[in-house]
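Good morning C.,

I know you're traveling, so I'll keep this short. The sequence:
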Amino acid sequence: MNLLSGGVVLLSVWGAAQLISLSWLCCLLTGLGLCVAWRGSWRFIRVALCTFRRDLMCLYVIMRVRIPMFRYLRNRSTIPALFAQTVTKYPDKAALIYEATGEVWTFRELQQRCHAVAHWARAQGWLEGDVVALYMKSQPQVVALWLGLAMVGVEAALINHNLRQQSLLHCVGMSRARAMVFGTEMRGAVSEVRGSLQPDMLLFISGEHDDKDELCSLDGMLQRSPKHPPDYTVKKGFSDRLFYIYTSGTTGMPKAAIVVHSRYYRIASFGFHSFGLHHDDIIYSCLPLYHSLLPETVFTFWRDCCCQGQVILYIGEICRYLLAQPVRSSEAHHRVRVAIGNGLRPTVWEEFVRRFRIRQIGEFYGATECNCSLINIDGKVGACGFNSRILPSFYPIRLVRMTEENGELLRDPQGLCVPCQPGEPGMLVGRINHTDPLRRFDGYADQESTRKKIAPNVFKMGDSAYVSGDILVMDEYGYIVFKDRSGDTFRWRGENVSTTEVEGVVSGLLGHADVAVYGVSVPGVEGKAGMAAVAHTGGQFDPEVFLTAVQKSLPSYARPVFLRLMPSVDTTGTFKIQKTRLQREGFKPGESGDKMYFLNSRAGRYEAVTDELYNDVMEGRVRL
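The tokens, ready to paste straight into the viewer:
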């Protein structure tokens, strides 16, 4: 059977290659035919024939990315150096267009502003490897700051501007930043934590402000700073640190994910080549530069796209919000060709494409720090990517089995991880190879968090792999669909919510009571709504007082949507909180006799969950 299968495929692929007269392709197809013969079965032949074109497209993209990357590695290039080459090619082309003010910065103007930032950083005495925290809402200045700092080897830490108090202090401390630049809109939040920052931390404010604040004005310094290139040669190379982006990950509090120069290039290059972008394309994004959602932009989304943008960036929530809006005339006049992002549900996908006439959806999967990113290169509805079924080891990722109770990876008798079969949910892992810029895992600013994301002996004895913490499913053709998040994180309102972080805040507000925070599914709603189970043994619980305290301590997306007051929270023998039963029971009243509350955001209060309210939420009559 193997010989028969191989013979059929060999004749088919050889004939196709001869027909288009490509000798190199003949060799490639012959090799694939031999592979089919080796794997041989009629089912495999059918899968190979259906996916061969897709896999060949992916191979082309990988080579377009990989070849320049190795050249840049050899030459020790950096992102600022590559940016300088772009400025030389397109000095007067628009680099950044800021819809809020109508500002347009050309590549030359952006470079001059970056040079001013670089001179300012040198004047402060900062050295390569020093860190400066950026705590600002999205604006062109943010790009000039991190890119200008990188010109002299200083690393930016991009802080989520929704963070407050302890979460903000944690992120600033994690980066070991020597200074913080913040916008005037963040002045109140900085004032709340100023006394808890390191005494020697320098604070710079950007934007209009009162001179009585006794803060260093960044804008004035940059205006006086030279606009020519700094007289300094950076010692960093393509594998060195560029900046930090914070992620809640799957193992606790927010972590500072390390982004090296090669990773930044890889992300941009894969997006460009995978989805057929052009050098003349304008990319429209209503996502803040630390990555989250600005809901108010939904109302002007298509109006902005009529003026600018052939490519839009999305997260699944944006697409759902747009579909929920009334039909507007501007929807029919946009120039959008490609939508790139992640989290687009299959049910929303087809309606979004049909209503807004989007020609191509570029769905992908990936975390800032991961080495197992996926790309849906051929527009398969519902898939976030694929892995070749013909040559599965070419891209060394795998879905492996795990325990439902605690998410630990299952092992076979030899001690290796057990791969999943098609259709079986599993944990996504990616083999680590630090000599390959596409396979390396740079981790986080703290080594302990990095260690927790690495598993030994996954593909073979002696290797190591990055553990994503996400559950996905692969079908027989290799298409991969996102299923769920495991661990201590869930997705809500376009943000990753760290359960450990929320548990710490809520526990502190309630006198250090035991608290379990987890996500619960609500029909028709993207992501999972946050729910907090609180060990409440007696005394009066005031929902209004609690809500006021939570609003001061947590960003809106991290505030518990549901509350459950119970005598005690289930724990293991080592006092780890067990959430499986709590998640299964959800927020339905009467199951346990526990008091349940629902955060009615429209009314601005927590309300007791009754059977009627429960049914209204489940059937969509009450919107979250």
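Safe travels,
E.
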